[in-house]
Write a structure and sequence with these properties.
- The chain has about 260 residues and is mainly α.
- It has one domain.
- The chain is built from nine helices and two strands.
- A two-stranded antiparallel ribbon has the order 1-2.
- It is elongated.
- The two termini are about 20 Å apart.
């Protein structure tokens, strides 16, 4: 059952909180660090660059890509291994056609596809090829989403610098007014500040989190492929278990029953 990833939420809130605490402890009014035009330039410019770089069909998925970083799908490989071993026991005891009934209790479409192909007597090489192809396209979709996040990661500091240049130009036009130099310089630097916060507190960590999510899902899919192929070949359930345990870290293998 998917649920919110507390590590992501706590990390972002802690980062903002520490920055706010540092500003407050330094004696500066928090409102000095808020400037709406700087927000528009930094994040609006970054979003504009994102729109230029990617087609509409990818852009509409961007909110769900970001949401994926906040959701922990709780992939549990040890439970998947236990299920695959149970399916192997059913196939050995009642024949592989008996697995057609167990697909009704499975909520993983990838696993259902593999079992149905095995039940239909599909050639093992064809099963492997079809499931590998689906896995490859899954990884490609994940990488497209990650590239959108990386685009925002790169563009936020760049647009922050552009905003700073815009502010400096405006400041230099009023150079004769010495009293305005300090406040105008502070406002000009806020876009760089926003760009750095957006990049290093949100988009760069989010990119790394999506990498971890992709690796976890690919590992689970590889495990399913190995399990389905082993079941179709008629392996003993104990052999199926041993083949799949190698996907787990040593300290996780004891969780497999």
């Amino acid at each position: 059952m998917p649920r919110f990833d507390l590590a992501t939420i706590v990390g972002i809130l802690a980062g903002f909180g520490l920055n706010v605490a540092g500003i407050w402890m330094g004696g500066s009014p928090l409102l000095l660090y808020w400037n709406l035009p700087s927000v528009f330039i930094t994040f609006g410019g970054a979003l504009a660059s994102l729109v230029v770089q990617f087609p509409i069909r990818d852009l509409v998925t961007f909110p769900s890509v970001l949401a994926h970083g906040f959701i922990d799908h709780r992939l549990e490989p040890h439970k998947m291994i236990a299920n695959l071993v149970r399916y192997a026991e059913t196939a050995r005891r009642d024949g592989i056609l008996a697995l057609e009934a167990v697909t009704e209790e499975i909520d993983d479409e990838f696993l259902i596809t593999g079992i149905q192909l095995a039940v239909d007597g599909t050639d093992p090489e064809l099963i492997r090829s079809m499931m590998d192809t689906e896995l490859e396209y899954l990884s490609q979709r994940h990488q497209r989403g990650k590239r959108m996040v990386e685009c925002m990661m790169d563009m936020c500091p760049a647009w922050g610098m552009i905003g700073t240049l815009i502010g400096l130009i405006a400041m230099l036009k009023q150079l004769s007014d010495v009293s305005s130099i300090g406040p105008n310089m502070a406002i000009a630097l806020l876009t760089t500040f926003y760009g750095a916060i957006g990049c290093y507190l949100f988009f760069k960590p989010m990119s790394q989190k999506l990498d971890l999510r992709n690796a976890e899902e690919i590992l689970m899919r590889e495990m399913i492929i190995r399990g389905v192929m082993s079941i179709q070949s008629g392996d003993n359930p104990r052999i199926v278990s041993q083949k799949l345990r190698i996907f787990l870290a040593p300290n996780q293998r004891t969780q497999v029953t």
